[in-house]
């Protein structure tokens, strides 16, 4: 016997089938698209941002709705390309490509962190320089000291891990050296002068940490990447463990410098921060460079090097227990007893002379050719 469905129930079922309530959209009808803004850079590099959009499609694949994907709902990572040339800020989804003369490509991978999950690769390109670009002088300085073997770099700013060498040993070992297929050399006196000035040998010094001083338009002759550079330089010390400089005025090497006697990884160091300036920065003054706001912005342009307070010794064995350091140059003032080097302590920093037979640290420079 057939079961009879009440007419009223059939009516309810019909209404339900013809309901205008929106049906749930399947994962197949949702698509995430990521892009880089911008994706192509000149040899000067620059900053960009990864942005994501969630697209809702109809049955024919046409977009019916789109909405931005919040930064917190996806991650980005470098899948291919040099980590030395591209850095990522996953919080802001921004990336920074460093300047370089050679063409370079990078692939960033973007992934959503909520359902439906999507992954996309974005290609970035830095074009080759039409002409050689000027590099920050501090870029030629290696990040760490040479170790006791003289064959490799240390990996920290601890005061007791660096190698110590007499002047003659340093010149013999490091006049030219290749480490991990990269050529380095012991810097000359003039190359060091591109990083720190010659000391006044009195207080206050050009770079002074515990006294105030103001030295405008100091004429200096240095060597940067094999090029002789003569310029006027402004120095100003505030007496709070920080000195500032506006260096190489009137040249393509115009740059802002900050010298700090401070701590890094809980070790005493001198930290040098340098920023190459452009055409729009020629009107900057030393007083503007001394303002914290100057250094809080455009940090991606900064080059930073930490010099450990590795000490030195007049006689063997050498000691490394004092909050100061001396780094050899490859130059001697035609004196059998002394040679030039870069020195710093809690009061000042500059180029000095030191006893050739004492043990000193070595910080190499990357060879430009």
Q: Got a strand count? A: 22
From the N-terminal CA to the C-terminal CA, the straight-line distance is 99 Å
> Which stretches of 5+ consecutive residues score pLDDT under 50?
1-26
Largest sheet: 6 strands, antiparallel
Please count the helical segments.
5
Quick one: overall form?
elongated
Report strand %: 35-45%
**What is the oligomeric state here?**
single chain
**What is the radius of gyration computed over CA atoms, rounded to a whole number of angstroms?**
30 Å
SSE class = mainly beta
What portion of residues is helical?
Answer: under 10%
Record the strand order, biggest sheet.
Answer: 13-14-15-16-17-18
Mean pLDDT over the full residue set = 88
Pattern of helices and strands: HEEEEEEEEEHEEHEEEEEEHHEEEEE
């Amino acid at each position: 016997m057939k079961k009879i469905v009440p007419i009223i129930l059939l009516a309810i079922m019909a209404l339900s089938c013809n309901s205008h309530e929106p049906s749930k959209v399947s994962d197949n009808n949702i698509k995430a698209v990521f892009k880089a803004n911008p994706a192509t850079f000149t040899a000067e590099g620059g900053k960009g941002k990864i942005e994501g959009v969630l697209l809702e499609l109809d049955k024919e694949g046409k977009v019916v709705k789109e909405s931005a994907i919040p930064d917190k709902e996806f991650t980005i990572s470098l899948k291919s390309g040099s980590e030395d040339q591209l850095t990522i800020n996953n919080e802001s989804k921004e990336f920074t490509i460093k300047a370089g003369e050679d063409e370079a490509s990078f692939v960033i991978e973007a992934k959503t962190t909520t359902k439906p999950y999507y992954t996309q690769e974005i290609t970035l390109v830095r074009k080759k320089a039409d002409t050689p670009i000027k590099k920050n002088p501090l870029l030629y300085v290696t990040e760490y000291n040479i170790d006791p073997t003289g064959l490799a770099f240390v990996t920290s700013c601890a005061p007791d891990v660096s190698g110590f060498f007499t002047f003659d040993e340093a010149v013999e070992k490091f006049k030219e050296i290749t480490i991990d297929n990269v050529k380095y050399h012991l810097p000359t006196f003039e190359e060091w002068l591109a990083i720190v000035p010659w000391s006044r040998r009195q207080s206050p010094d050009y770079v002074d940490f515990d006294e105030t001083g103001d030295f405008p338009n100091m004429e200096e002759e240095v060597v940067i990447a094999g090029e002789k550079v003569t310029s006027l330089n402004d120095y100003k010390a505030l007496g709070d463990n920080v000195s500032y400089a506006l260096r190489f005025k009137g040249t393509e090497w115009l740059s802002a410098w900050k010298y700090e006697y401070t701590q890094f990884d809980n070790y005493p160091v001198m930290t040098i921060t340098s920023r190459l300036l452009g055409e729009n920065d020629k009107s900057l003054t030393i007083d503007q460079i001394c303002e914290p706001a100057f250094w809080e912005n455009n940090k991606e342009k900064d080059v930073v090097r930490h010099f450990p307070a590795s000490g030195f010794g007049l006689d063997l064995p050498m000691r490394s227990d004092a909050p100061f350091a001396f780094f050899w140059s490859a130059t001697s003032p035609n004196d059998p007893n002394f040679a030039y080097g870069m020195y710093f302590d809690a009061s000042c920093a500059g180029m000095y002379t030191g006893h050739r037979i004492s043990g000193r640290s070595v910080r190499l420079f990357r060879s430009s050719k």
